[in-house]
Amino acid sequence: MFKIMLASTAVAAGAALFAGSAFAQSASPSSSSATKLSQAQCETLWNQANPSKSATLSMSQAQPYVSDFKSVDTDNDGTISQAEFTKGCNNSHVKSSAAAGSSSGSGDSNQ
After folding, report:
1. What pTM value is reported for the model?
2. Rounded distance between C-alpha atoms, residue 18 and residue 46, angstroms
3. In 3D, which of 55, 91, 60 has the Cα closest to residue 74?
């Protein structure tokens, strides 16, 4: 009788661990996925990254905002146009704000 109780306890514990593991795995991808930005958010970030209002962003200008420069620079010219930036926003390659502590050499300090 003791062996049966021990075996059923082990099965119940194993099922609980499995269920917890499955839950953790299913919750993980949604928590790490990037959020698509609205058009207004995208335009605001473009203006923050491009205060001189030039036609394109250099890699150093885009770095605090863009998570994967090569994916956003679709024409591979080494710069990001506003159209490429907007497409990057739509594909979740643009961050909702500039990375804290990153340095683009602009000399601007917001601390």
Report:
1. 0.59
2. 45
3. 91
